[in-house]
Amino acid sequence: MIDFRGRFLNSPTSQVHENMPHSSMPPVQFLRSGATTFRVAIWLSGLFALAVVQSCMPLPPEGGGIDVGTTSDQWTVRFDPALGTPASMVNRALRNETGSTGAKPVDSAVAEAAVQQVFHSRTQWFRLRSGVDAFRLVRDETRGWLRYQRFEQTYRGLSVAGAGYEAHVLPNGRVGSLEGSYFPDLNVDIRPTFGESQARDRARNLFQLGAPSEPLPQLQYEIENGFREASVLTIVPQGGNFLLAWGIVVAVGSRDHARVYIDARTGSALGRQMIGWSDTR
Fold it and tell me: Which of 61, 138, 228, 263 has the lowest tally of Cβ within 10 angstroms?
């Protein structure tokens, strides 16, 4: 049995009162002390009665518990040292989540909304300017009970080559992880002065007879984001700079293809990336 009385008497106030000689305590102070002791006794009696009632209550069914609401997301973030933005985010609140037998992946639209919510709610990590910076869904697939989505970064509606995130979304609609890159605070003039047809001629001339007439740097932009056309206008990272460029698909030999990036302001060739896309149209 818990000794509530002993716990009360060990408080500093009770010790002072307890150690004072009775002959030195004025009558009024003694009466007040007695009233205080009586009120405490009543309070302790009520507490004991509540404990007895709770002990008699039926237990919740096995596996049940107290519902305290949805657990909030708690992110472990690894930042890109150069960009200062997330390179990976893992939701540690979901680290023990596993898919149950027969669990189905969450609906694509629900998953996309959940990922977009992460982007827009974490303003300290993603400094998205309205009408300027955004993330656009460009790939969606499922593997078992997980949904995988690829989001490209856009700047004023144009793709930023290689930038964006792959998200893993659980069947409950919560985002488990994000991995990729985001370039903040871009400031690029998106009006080309070197036209699309000029860029196409320039790129194809570089690969006459299936071989470049001049050395071109090999570029590697992961998944090429959402590029589906033979010619795209995009933002290309070049070291610490960002250039407006045309990405033109050209044939390289009898089977292979490359996307050649041509500066949309100067017409100079920036590099090429080998791709498996084959419709040159």
Answer: 61
**How far is residue 175's CA from residue 181's CA, in Å, rounded to a whole number?**
17
In the predicted structure, residue 257 carries a pLDDT above the cut 60: yes
Phi, psi of 23 (to 5 degrees): -70, -20
pLDDT single digits (tens) 50-89: 444 444 444 433 333 333 334 578 899 999 999 999 999 9
Cα-atom radius of gyration of the chain, to the nearest Å?
Answer: 34
What single-letter DSSP state applies at residue 85? S
- Using an 8 Å Cβ cutoff, are 28 and 36 in contact? no
Tell me how far apart the terminal alpha carbons of the chain are, to the nearest angstrom. 86
Please return the burial class of 10, using the count of CB atoms within 10 Å of its CB with bins 0-12, 13-18 and 19+. exposed
pTM here?
0.69
Percent composition of the chain: helix, strand, coil (DSSP 3-state, to 5) = 30, 30, 40
Residues 159, 115: Cα–Cα separation, whole Å:
18
Residue 275: predicted pLDDT: 83
The pLDDT score that the predictor gives to residue 210 is: 56
Positive/negative CA dihedral, 216, 221, 223, 225:
negative
